Amino acid sequence: MDKLTRFAKSRKKTGVLLAVCILCALASRGLLCAQSTPPASESSALIADFRRVEVASVSDALEQLTGKRMYMSHHMQPIFTAKFAGYARTVQLKKDEGNKDPSALNGMLAAIDQGSTDSVYVMAVEDGADIAGMGGLMGTAMAARGYAGAVIDGGVRDVGYLRKIGFPVFATGIVPSTSVGHYRFAGGQIPVTCDGVMVNPGDIVAADSDGVVVVPASKAQEVLKLAQQLDFKEHSMYPEIEKMKSIEEAVKKSGRL
């Protein structure tokens, strides 16, 4: 019996050691989700920080760091005053006039249901100035799933209801038209050009009363840090301008305009 017991214990230890070796090997290759996926808390904290800074400061930071324009034009307007930030979930619609395909826009709906808290729905509607890319039904689904907001390179409708539920949307126009029978889903979670700005899935989209800006995911931390510094400097200047009664002197002192 003693020999059998010792044999069983030996086999058990061998099995444990083997399991540990396998786990270490998987971890070293990045195959364990816990090792390869950033904690959700870090992601949420980053978005929370972007919601605290002004879009104008984010835009300035992007231009200083990348030399590129990453803000959308004056055509992109909110349906009500709003401020939000989140991760881009992209959708592309292409023209398909007169189509009778009942499934032509199914992918658009599936894309909404795949998003969650801190998502921003970014839709590019081909020649869509007079076509509503979204309305009340889609907005209700996004709100229920915790989306931060939506940015539509095209029109939006059911604005009264969207205002009622408080779901923020930026769009290039307000129109009563439908995309059904006129458009087809052309892809989701792909790079899209939204009002002249390239948006990749997972980029950070920030919006406030000054407009909409897109932060490449790879630059997020760097842009945030500089935007926070620019925000602090500008906000510190307000009392200085009031005290000096001179913007020229305040700018000379701070170096920020």
What does this structure look like?
This protein is of the alpha/beta class. It has a domain of 169 residues: Glucose Oxidase, domain 1. It has 9 helices and 11 strands. The strands form 2 sheets. Strands 1, 2, 3, 4, 5, 6, 7, 10 and 11 form a 9-stranded mixed beta sheet that branches. The chain has a two-stranded antiparallel ribbon with strand order 8-9.
What is the N-to-C order of secondary-structure elements (H for helix, E for strand)?
HHHHEEHEEHEHEEEEEEHH
The named CATH superfamily of the domain at 55-223: Ribonuclease E inhibitor RraA/RraA-like
CATH third-tier fold name of the domain at 55-223: Glucose Oxidase, domain 1
Distance between the termini: 86 Å
Oligomer: single chain
Uncertain segments of ≥5 residues (pLDDT<50)?
Answer: 12-38
- What structural category do the secondary elements indicate? alpha/beta
Q: What is the count of DSSP helices, taking H or I runs of 4+ residues?
A: 9
CATH class of the domain at 55-223: Alpha Beta
Task: Report mean pLDDT, rounded to a whole number.
Answer: 86
Estimate the global geometry from the Cα principal axes.
elongated
Helical residues, percent: 40-55%
Portion in beta strands? 15-25%
Using the 3D structure, state the CATH architecture of the domain at 55-223: 3-Layer(bba) Sandwich
For the largest beta-sheet, the strand count, sense and barrel status come to:
9 strands, mixed
Extended strand count: 11
Give me the Rg, rounded: 25 Å
